[in-house]
Specification:
It is built from seven helices and 18 strands. The protein is an alpha+beta fold and about 450 residues long. The chain has one domain: outer membrane lipoprotein receptor (LolB), chain A (Clam).
């Protein structure tokens, strides 16, 4: 990978020293100067294909109504700069992930349309202020749990891979969100099978303005999802609470046929999650989620890569306009050139996981893992994961909605949080009552 010398030096130094800790005062002082408030390089690249960050997109696109749909493309008038197919992919190979290259080789219909880069990432001022405080206060303890961080990116100047992955897990995506969505498994024959049709409540106590993360017992992300369909799953519900200390994570499922709520015994890692009808594992959600302690995390460095970005148009039309027989519809997915942090995961000795190796690509402006690849125990490239970042100037944020994976071995694929046919898409709401994310809420049907 053609990293700059400075990036390689930083990555090697971190790997050799096992550095775990806060940024120096000198490093932190660059936030808002040479670095964005989240720690990205503020300047553009040398050839001008990546512009300088100028504060992001904070003005809503024409036609947007608060609490409504987010399919207004702020750059609808732009045309692709170029398109990549299997025929010309070698020309761009150094800017493509292994998974993207595998998809181009596997499917003649797969294509990447590359548009001008827009650095739309933004966040509230308070989130920037908290990030600046975290820079010199946050540390990882010996269990790889962040301490001293709250309400912002915990490690804007990361020293190792675990810190970078915590930046992804705790990235800014709003405090309290209401959404309705569907999910589809696409068989190897190209047939879409709906696995989820649900309404969800999501909150991030980590970003609550009154500093109530501690009052929430360290739970940084809560979600409750209630299924209306498909018919076989109607009435089923799942509740999840992710904790900074993964040993305190908790998930519950309500089984409508039994009229009982049960605590899931192993709601982590490569266990299939009921939230997707078992199609994805818990730690495949949003490219990667959950606990870090099964892997050694290596911060490889920063690299210019082609990734999905500013993909509001992916929310337009019908579900099956986006969800094709072999992959997402290339006409509806915008790709751009951005700098990303590359993080590799290798299974620790004595641990077990169906995917012992992974590589993740974190957008420098948002810290979101936009793409990821996983290898199986035989060393075969198995799954390539993706998310589609969407501009949300009202939050403000640029954060993914739809996500999923392509299984390169079975030729199946999965799309989650498909909202094309829903009346609203990722709606910011006032804080939910604490009872919303209680075990009892599944029995009572509280929303």
């Amino acid at each position: 990978m053609n990293f700059t010398r400075a990036m390689v030096t930083a990555a090697v130094t971190a790997a050799m020293t096992g550095a775990v800790g806060a940024a120096t005062p000198e490093e932190a002082a660059q936030l808002g100067k040479t670095l964005t408030p989240f720690g990205a390089e503020k300047a553009g690249n040398k050839d001008g294909t990546i512009p300088a960050w100028d504060g992001g997109l904070t003005k809503a696109a024409a036609g947007y109504k608060a609490g409504g749909r987010r399919d207004q493309d702020p750059y609808a008038g732009e045309k692709p700069l170029y398109s990549i197919t299997a025929k010309n992919m070698d020309q761009y190979a150094d800017k493509l992930t292994d998974g993207t290259k595998a998809m181009l080789k596997k499917h003649a219909s797969y294509r990447i349309d590359v548009y001008p880069t827009h650095r739309t990432a933004a966040a509230p001022q308070l989130v920037y202020e908290n990030t600046a405080k975290n820079a010199t206060a946050a540390k990882l303890n010996d269990k790889q749990i962040p301490t001293g961080a709250f309400g912002g990116i915990p490690f804007p100047v990361p020293k190792n891979g675990a810190e970078a992955m915590w930046n992804h897990l705790l990235n800014w995506r709003g405090e309290n969100i209401d959404f309705v969505d569907r999910a589809y498994l696409i068989t190897s024959e190209g047939k879409p099978v709906m696995t989820v049709d649900a309404a969800a409540a999501q909150s991030m106590p980590y970003y609550f303005r009154d500093g109530s993360l501690e009052a929430n017992g360290g739970n940084y992300w809560n979600i409750r999802l209630v299924n209306a369909g498909p018919p076989i799953r109607a009435g089923e519900a799942i509740l999840g609470r992710l904790n900074l200390d993964a040993d305190r994570d908790a998930s519950y499922v309500y089984l409508a046929g039994q009229r009982r709520t049960r605590k899931l015994p192993n709601a982590c890692c490569d266990t299939p999650t009921p939230a997707t009808a078992g199609v994805m594992s818990f730690d495949e959600l949003n490219v990667f989620s959950g606990r870090l302690d099964r892997f050694d995390w290596k911060l490889v460095g920063k690299k210019e890569m082609l990734i999905p970005y500013n993909t509001n148009r992916s929310l337009a039309g019908k579900d099956l306009d986006l969800v094709g027989p072999q992959h997402l519809n290339p006409d509806m997915v915008r790709w751009e050139l951005h700098r990303v942090w590359v993080v590799e995961a290798n299974l620790k000795a004595g641990m077990r996981h169906v995917a012992p190796k992974g590589r993740y690509y974190l957008d420098e402006d948002t810290w979101t893992a936009v793409l990821g690849d996983r290898w199986d125990a035989k060393g075969q490239l198995w799954k390539t994961m993706w998310q589609l970042p969407v501009t949300m100037p009202d939050l403000p944020a640029t954060t993914p909605i739809t996500f999923g994976f392509y299984d390169l071995l079975s030729n199946t694929w999965f799309a989650n949080l498909v909202m094309n046919e829903k009346p609203y898409q990722y709606k910011a709401v006032p804080r939910y009552p604490e009872t919303t994310f209680s075990q009892d809420s599944l029995n009572s049907g509280v929303r």
